[in-house]
Predict the structure.
Amino acid sequence: MKSLRGAGEDRSAGLPNKLYGIPVTSSLLPTYARAKLAFERGEGAWLFSTTGERYLDFGAGIAVVSVGHAHPHLVEALTKQAQKLWHVSNLFEIPQAELLGRRLVEVSFADLAFFTNSGTEAIEGAIKAARKYHYVSGHPEKFRIITVQGAFHGRTIAAVTAGGNPKYIEGFGPPPEGFDQVPLGDLAALKAAIGPHTAAIMVEPIQGEGGIRAIPLAHLQAMRQLCDENGLLLVLDEVQTGLGRTGKLFAYEHAGIAPDIMTLAKGLGGGFPLGAILLTREAGKGMTVGTHGTTFGGNPLATTVGNAVLDLVLADDFVDRVARMGKILKEGLVDLAARHRDVIAEIRGQGLMLGIKARGPVQDLVAAALQEKLILIPAGDNVARLLPPLIIGEAEIDAALTRLEAAATSVESKARMGAAE
Ligand SMILES: *Cc1c(COP(=O)(O)O)cnc(C)c1O
């Protein structure tokens, strides 16, 4: 994303002119450098543009469309519920939310769940729960959260401060107190950062926006141990890694550890805005009546869709199949990288959360892939992410690899032409 376009600039090329009348100038706050491309329909791993072209979606709306576009089971669940009841407040019992909470608790470390509309709200709530835990334990002085450099935890003021990326913090006034950052995998720095005010360590098992940077499993285990030794809570941000994405239901399973608090979102609603905080009973002990709330979080429509996603993701073999497909895709990418060493520096990741580290600007590779009608998602550290719907099979993997081959070749020939000039 090279530059932000100004507000009001003509973006008509990607918008459905036939529906809106032309020329279309955007009234949206220009915080995104959007591709001039819009979609009107999706099916599985495929997207159909307003101009009638078919794209292979290996971005899945940033790891959101976990079971593919317009999955019949989700469409049925959503439309049935939509005819009955969309929303009631959290002042009443919500059976769909109770069911979703119970199912998430049963398959995870957790005892309790709180539903949100987004990842960043789940993070915000997790930070509050961690601080409140120490407060009600007689340690109001313990409020600081240790995070990892390169992290991304969302866009609220607290979440950008926790993430530590100066680009997202600058200009938004004094950041809130209470966040300390350590380099990824640096055990000595982590130990040194723990002090009398530390409440928790918060970390993504594999950094997504940061560029598919995995925390080494031994380091995750060390984090767990340091939390136990120092009375800290371990908060895992599994907004991107959770619900099968890495080839396990939750990424913490790879390390054989469990957190005290975990955040989920992206894949949980399969495209419907839905997030969750999962907590042990102990970690949640400060969150009593009136301490936290949400108007929309966990409403009947959202949690109905969440339950429909779980019907699929918790089915026998679903997550194991993600691991198998991820392995096949990664092997294909490693072969591709060997044939295109001038373009690809490294293949990273696990399950269907994979990254291609580019040698040139990653935006060139993402643009070349888009030319080949393959959607990738750029991330930090010069990495293009592959986050396909978890339902893909070998046919989609083959199609993606063919398109990537063409994209890498096109990046190479452009570089050669540039060198010859
Ligand atoms: C996307 C993401 C978030 C923020 O989620 P939103 O739904 O965009 O608020 C937080 N943490 C991680 C790890 C993410 O990938």
